[in-house]
From TrEMBL:
Pfam families, per database record: Amidohydro_2
Keyword match Cell inner membrane: no
UniProt entry keywords in alphabetical sequence: Lyase
Top-level taxon of origin: Bacteria
Name this polypeptide is given: Amidohydrolase-related domain-containing protein
Taxonomic source organism: Rhodoglobus vestalii
Domain Amidohydrolase-related: 83-358
Lyase listed as a keyword: yes
Recorded GO MF terms: carboxy-lyase activity; hydrolase activity
């Protein structure tokens, strides 16, 4: 879907053009801005070698029984045991829940009950001694609905829980120039640390050069782009899949972005069924491409993915739960049952995400 008005590049940024012809990509001719240096904290987490069995036991770690109403207090960086790279917040602090159009099918598929707001999530993750990347998805152009939890609400609450909340934003690329301006403002003024895109839900081909100004903006600010890949629970079982076209989320479309924006860190979300091999190939070939392992219980990981985690992609795979679809405890319990090398587990649970995000900041 082309934006109503094309974008022209000027010294001041992107502005609305005066013609309705499809904008030609201009990124090759634009002077690039190197991403800012980010200090990477070196936190000893060697205790994760050999597995998380004792951590996952409520007998040895009674904090896991804490509820969202309790707050264990801020967690020191050295006590964070993992970074959950993929969580959704679907309830605003006002109590509004979204996306209402798909809530019923998602509840039926994943079986989650009462949804927490972000403050409740933060308390839960403090009890787990985990940090977490969190977002809601902006699909206004296709649904006409604003998301329940705004990026600014996420950013504001992240200031209350800086020890555990890593705030990501989401802008619908189909908003055109507005998306570019909004993304820049969220990073510059609200400390948003990355952006989530859902090509199927937002209904766009990621490699369409129409969206290159947005990627250019993210690259210049040194923040990663997280793209949904593979099948989705959104619309599952609804007539026509509620209009969700799976083709948009084939990870092969991310290869063009990785080539044209080599300084943009790209994260392919989920084991990319039915395109797992494509995701592995891109992550192996492009140094700026990573994979988060969220959304699937590890017991269903294909053998070729497990082999890559233990080998060539050991430094490029990230723990993620897809909460509330899966809890971190469920994901970790099943991951512990896999034959993963002891030295690699700390990379998956925390260190790879730490390097990617430059988190925590000193």
């Amino acid at each position: 879907m082309a934006p109503k008005w094309p974008l022209l590049r000027t010294a001041a940024g992107f502005v609305f053009g005066a013609t309705t012809e499809k904008r030609q990509p201009t990124h090759e001719n634009v002077q690039r801005v190197n991403p800012p240096d980010r200090t990477i904290s070196s936190v000893p987490i060697d205790r994760l070698r050999g597995g998380m069995g004792s951590y996952l036991s409520t007998e040895t770690n009674p904090q896991l029984t804490a509820t969202a109403e309790q707050d264990t207090g801020p967690i020191a960086p050295e006590d964070i045991v993992a970074i959950d790279f993929h969580t959704h917040v679907l309830r605003a602090t006002s109590g509004m829940v979204g996306p209402s159009a798909h809530e019923e099918s998602l509840r039926a598929l994943f079986g989650f009950g009462e949804l927490p707001d972000l403050r409740q999530m933060a308390r839960e993750y403090r009890a787990r001694r985990m940090a977490f990347v969190v977002f809601d998805v902006d699909d206004f152009a296709s649904t006409g609905q604003e998301k329940a939890v705004s990026d600014r609400e996420i950013a504001r609450i992240a200031l209350e829980f800086p020890d555990v909340i890593i705030p990501f934003g989401s802008v619908d690329p189909n908003r055109g120039a507005q998306a570019v301006v909004e993304a820049a403002e969220l990073v510059d003024e609200h400390n948003i640390r990355g952006f989530k895109f859902h090509p199927t839900q937002q209904r766009f081909y990621p490699s369409d050069k129409e969206f290159y100004p947005l990627y250019e903006e993210l690259e210049s600010r040194g923040v990663p782009a997280l793209f949904h890949s593979g099948v989705t629970g959104v619309g599952r079982g609804e007539p026509g899949g509620a209009g969700m076209r799976l083709k948009y989320s084939n990870p092969i479309y991310l290869d063009d972005i990785a080539v044209d924006f080599p300084a943009l860190k790209i994260v392919i979300a989920h084991p990319s069924f039915p395109w797992q091999d494509e995701a592995i190939a891109i992550a192996q070939h492009k140094p700026n491409v990573f994979i988060d392992l969220s959304g699937w219980s590890p017991k269903y990981f294909p053998e070729n993915l497990i082999k890559q985690i233990n080998g060539p992609l050991s430094g490029k795979v990230l723990f993620g739960s897809d909460y509330p679809a899966l809890t971190p405890e469920r994901w970790m319990t099943d991951f512990e049952a896999l034959s993963i090398k002891d030295a690699i587990r700390p990379l998956v649970y925390r260190r790879n995400a730490e390097k990617l995000l430059g988190w925590p900041e000193n």
